[in-house]
Amino acid sequence: MRVIVNGKPRELPDGASVAEAVAAVTTAASGVAAAVNDEVVRRSAWAATELREADRVEVLTAVQGG
């Protein structure tokens, strides 16, 4: 299935979860947030939240700086 991850089309297997979409774009273990269709998904729900064709996923990584 095709979803939009951080503004770019990406092919994921049917039934892919938010956790799989996040893993496709980052290896960061902490400081990561995800939203699907403009709604934040709690990290504890990533594995259980199934994506659908044409969903828009935003993956944000916190960056320390000054």
Automatic annotation (TrEMBL):
InterPro entries: Beta-grasp_dom_sf (IPR012675), Mopterin_synth/thiamin_S_b (IPR016155), Thi_S (IPR010035), ThiS/MoaD-like (IPR003749). NCBIfam families: thiS. PANTHER family: SULFUR CARRIER PROTEIN THIS (PTHR34472:SF1). This is Sulfur carrier protein ThiS. It comes from Actinomadura fibrosa.
